[in-house]
Every structure is written in structure tokens, then in C-alpha cells.
Specification:
The structure is a single chain. By secondary structure, the protein is mainly β. About 0% of the residues lie in helices and about 55% in strands. The protein starts with a strand and ends with a strand.
């Protein structure tokens, strides 16, 4: 069993050293010092309702193993990182990245994989209700030694705690499952959302005005073909509503796509971004909902280039800011609510070798983190503040 940190550490981390650069007209990127050490991987940013941003990552644990760590940022800068869980597995390629997710009222949920019976990768979680200082004993929202699909989990805040969405690899197909983990660390409200989800495509989850919204790539058989369109389900009054297709792309991928949708929500407005390669819709698409995910409008195309990475999206001001990968490079664009996109800019070149991009709104800007290779091929976590402009005008609210 992995070992959880149980006692607080009270020192503060020194302030940030900044370096600014501008990859292209209309996009300002301000590089920041990250609290993660060289060799760290799997960065994940999260923002709770206290206005505090957190960054989690995985770093090597000598002589063999890894540890999941967390740092919070307040008005004075990054606080001292603390260890959440120590993992015996030293090989990050064996499964999805562990992560820490912010919930309501200073609550955090950590998730990781650990070997179970017959070599199955079991999903484990722990909860903190004091800002990440102490944690509950590990618990498993899965049933016994069930095999969890090799993709990351998604979470959403709930008045009951933190909602959790994951993929379970079954004999007849891959199931999309959900549960809510309360402050005592125990999962409740378990539900089967779909019995035929894409086995290698992460789901996305957010909290909108009426409750949780989950988007995922579903597999549906028709005319001898298996399509993999994006589907949305909503949770209202502790009950899950029916599955609704965002847009009938009809994409039948020759293999497993390896990427799912991205979601962002603000009150009744929900935006979803996804990648498709169907004959009528190639590239990255974005669609809006103005009734908390009940219906989505016609999608717009953000980029038509080929790519394999998961897109990201966030609300800043009255706009959605989306980033996606094309041929190894990452591009970013601002889309006003219900409108067409503004020009797209290159955020990170293909030469950066970015494996994963994560971001959260940061006032009138976006705080982004990603994993890149430093000198000698050693991985490191990069951190930057992004701002898109329209001529001399920045995002609304800046």
C-alpha cells in the first residue's frame, strides 16, 4: 500500500522569478518559476473556490519509486510543496498519471493507480479537507480488483464532495463510471454512465449551474461501423440524465483515438472542444451550450491539422480560450461566447516536445503548465502566464 503524508509542513516557498517572451503577435507568454524540481513529470493545475491555485506533479523518489506532490499558490507566491502519496512503481509508462483535484471549501481529492490482484491496475483515492495537509486512508471507488482503463480520471465539485469519473475495462466493453467521494474519503452515489465508452479516451467533467456535466467519447455500432462521437450526460438532483450526442460526426477511427473532449463551464454556459477525423469534420471543433449542457449549437472549427493530444479549454472573461496540438505544436485561440474564433497563435513549437498541457483561469489571464525536456533530456515542469490580445485590447475583464 502506498504511504500518505500525515503531518503539516509550515514553511513558505520564495517568490517567483519571471521572464517574459512573446511567441507571436497577439499572444504574450510570461514564463514563471515552477515549484517542481528537475525530473518532475505529470503537472496538473487545479483551482478551488477559495481563489487558490494548486499544482501537482510526480517526482522520482530515491532509490526507487515516485511521489505525488502538491503546492498551493496564494497572494504571496507558492507555498512549500508537500508529499501526498509515495508510490512503489518507478515506471511512469505503466499507467496514467496520478493527480490532485481541488474541490469545494478547501477539499482535495488525490487519485493514483496501484497493482491489485492478477496484475490489474486498481484506482485508489484519498481526500484532504484541510487544504492538503492531512489525508484520509486510501480507498477504492472501484469494485474489488477491477481493471481500470489506462487513462486519467476527471472530477467535478459537488455539495456532497468531489465527483469522480473513470473508465473501467470490462469483458464486453469499456464502462464509464462515476461516484462522489465525501470528506471522509468514502465513495458514494456510484453510477454506470455508459457501458460502451472509448477505452483510451479520457472523459471530461465540470460543474454548471444545474449540476455536473460529463462529456466523453462513446462507441456506437451502426451499419457495421463503430462510431466514436462525443456524448454528454448531466447530473441534476443527484440523478444522471440521458446521454445526448453533441454533434453526429460519425467518426469511425481505424484504431483507438487516444484523446477525448475538454469542457469548461460558467453558470449556464458550457463549452466543449474535441478532435475528429470524420469526412465532414476534420480537426478540432468547439460547440456552445447556453442551457447548462442540455443542448449544444453547431460546432465551429478551430484547427484542421492532425494531432493526437488532448485539447484544453477555460473561460476567461466572456470568452473561451482553447489550446490544441497540431503536428506536435500547440496552438491557442480565443472564442467569444457564441461567436466565431479569433486568430489562432502558436503557443509551443513542436521542438518543445510537450507531452501534456494543463491550465486554469488566472484572473484575466490563463495559468498554464506543461512537461518539457530540459538539457540532457531530463523532464521538467514548465509554468507560464498567458494573455491573448486583440490589437491593443486584452481579454475582457483585464
Amino acid at each position: 500500500m502506498s504511504r500518505l503524508t500525515q503531518r503539516p509542513r509550515l514553511l513558505a516557498l520564495a517568490g517567483l522569478a519571471l521572464a517574459a517572451c512573446a511567441p507571436g503577435p497577439g499572444l504574450r507568454v510570461e514564463r514563471l518559476d515552477a515549484p517542481a524540481p528537475p525530473g518532475a513529470t505529470a503537472p496538473a493545475l487545479s483551482a478551488g473556490n477559495r481563489g487558490i491555485v494548486s499544482l501537482s506533479w510526480v517526482e522520482p523518489r530515491p532509490p526507487r519509486g515516485r511521489r505525488l506532490r502538491l503546492a498551493e499558490r496564494d497572494s504571496l507566491g507558492w507555498r512549500r510543496p508537500r508529499t501526498i502519496v509515495e508510490l512503489a512503481d518507478a515506471d511512469p509508462a505503466r499507467g496514467p498519471d496520478p493527480g490532485v483535484h481541488a474541490g469545494p471549501c478547501g477539499m482535495y481529492l488525490a487519485d493514483w493507480r496501484e497493482a491489485a490482484a492478477a496484475g490489474a491496475a486498481g484506482l485508489w483515492t484519498a481526500v484532504s479537507i484541510d487544504g492538503g495537509w492531512t489525508w484520509t486512508a486510501p480507498d477504492a471507488p472501484t469494485e474489488g480488483a477491477e481493471r481500470v482503463a489506462p487513462v486519467g480520471v476527471s472530477t467535478f465539485p459537488s455539495f456532497e464532495g468531489v465527483g469522480l469519473v473513470w473508465l473501467r475495462a470490462g469483458g464486453a466493453g469499456t464502462e464509464l463510471r462515476a461516484a462522489v467521494v465525501g470528506g471522509d474519503g468514502r465513495p458514494v452515489a456510484a453510477a454506470l454512465l455508459d457501458a460502451h465508452a472509448c477505452r483510451c479516451c479520457p472523459a471530461a467533467a465540470v460543474h454548471a449551474a444545474l449540476g455536473a456535466v460529463v462529456a466523453y467519447r462513446a462507441e456506437r455500432e451502426a451499419d457495421g461501423r463503430t462510431s466514436q462521437d462525443i456524448v454528454v450526460r448531466r447530473r441534476e438532483r443527484q440523478a444522471w440524465g440521458p446521454a445526448r450526442v453533441v454533434h453526429a460526426d460519425g467518426w469511425a477511427a481505424p484504431g483507438c483515438p487516444g484523446h477525448g473532449p475538454a469542457l469548461a463551464a460558467r453558470a449556464d454556459t458550457v463549452v466543449v472542444v474535441w478532435r475528429s477525423a470524420s469526412p465532414g469534420r476534420v480537426g478540432v471543433s468547439l460547440a456552445w451550450s447556453f442551457d447548462a449542457g442540455e443542448h449544444f449549437g453547431a460546432p465551429i472549427t478551430l484547427g484542421a491539422g492532425a494531432g493526437t493530444r488532448q485539447p484544453v479549454v477555460a473561460f476567461v472573461g466572456g470568452s473561451a480560450v482553447a489550446a490544441w496540438e497540431e503536428a506536435g505544436a500547440w496552438r491557442v485561440a480565443r472564442v467569444p461566447a457564441g461567436g466565431q474564433q479569433a486568430p489562432a497563435f502558436e503557443l509551443l513549437p513542436a521542438s518543445a516536445g510537450v507531452r501534456r498541457l494543463t491550465w486554469v483561469p488566472d484572473g484575466a489571464q490563463v495559468l498554464a503548465a506543461w512537461e518539457e525536456a530540459a538539457a540532457g533530456g531530463v523532464p521538467q515542469v514548465a509554468l507560464a502566464r498567458l494573455r491573448l490580445t486583440e490589437g491593443a485590447r486584452a481579454w475582457p475583464g483585464s
